[in-house]
């Protein structure tokens, strides 16, 4: 089942599913699976200001380099299961989690923090709904 779709600055189309993910490079007409995420529930994808992919999965937060598509796990999710994610203009990745919290992850310092949110924010079902709540708390 498809869980999310994203398009990066190079026009690659990223397809996330309940069993992994991959991307379609329109320039060479080639689909490439991301084998590091095989079998994982990939929940969402977003891109930072430099075009790198940030991927939230049931197993944590992953980073995929724009330059070489190398995938690296950044945060394990032993205590939470990430859901929707989005980048702020401060360069932080923000995501909701099944444990009813909103988190921010700062890639520069590798720091993860919990953000208190209104109960309504935890009912968001899309990035578009989540973002206004997040902006009030970061």
Relevant terms:
138 residues, mainly beta, 4-stranded antiparallel beta sheet
The order of strands across the largest sheet is: 1-2-3-4
Gyration radius, in Å: 14 Å
Main sheet: strands, sense, barrel: 4 strands, antiparallel
Count of DSSP E strands?
Answer: 12
State the share of residues found in helices, binned by percent: under 10%
Q: What general form does the structure show?
A: globular
The low-confidence parts are none
Structural class: mainly beta
Number of helices: 1
Order of helices and strands: EEEEEEEEEEEEH
Average pLDDT, to the nearest integer?
Answer: 80
Report on the structure:
The model has no long low-confidence stretch (mean pLDDT 80). With 138 residues, the protein is mainly beta. The longest helix is centred in the last third of the chain and has 9 residues, at 127-135. The strands form three sheets. A four-stranded antiparallel beta sheet has the order 1-2-3-4, with no helix packed on it. The chain is globular and about 45 Å long. Helices cover 7% and strands 46% of the residues.
């Amino acid at each position: 089942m498809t869980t999310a779709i994203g398009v990066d600055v190079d026009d690659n189309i990223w397809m996330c599913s309940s069993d992994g993910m991959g991307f379609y490079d329109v320039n060479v007409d080639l689909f490439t699976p991301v084998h590091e995420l095989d079998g994982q529930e990939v929940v969402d994808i977003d891109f930072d200001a430099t075009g790198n992919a940030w991927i939230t999965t049931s197993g944590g937060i992953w980073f995929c380099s724009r330059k070489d598509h190398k995938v690296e796990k950044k945060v394990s999710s032993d205590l939470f299961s990430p859901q929707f994610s989005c980048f702020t203009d401060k360069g932080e990745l923000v995501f909701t989690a099944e444990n009813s919290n909103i988190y921010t992850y700062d890639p520069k310092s590798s720091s993860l923090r919990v953000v208190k949110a209104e109960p309504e924010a935890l009912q968001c079902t899309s990035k578009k709904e989540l973002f206004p709540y997040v902006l009030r708390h970061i």
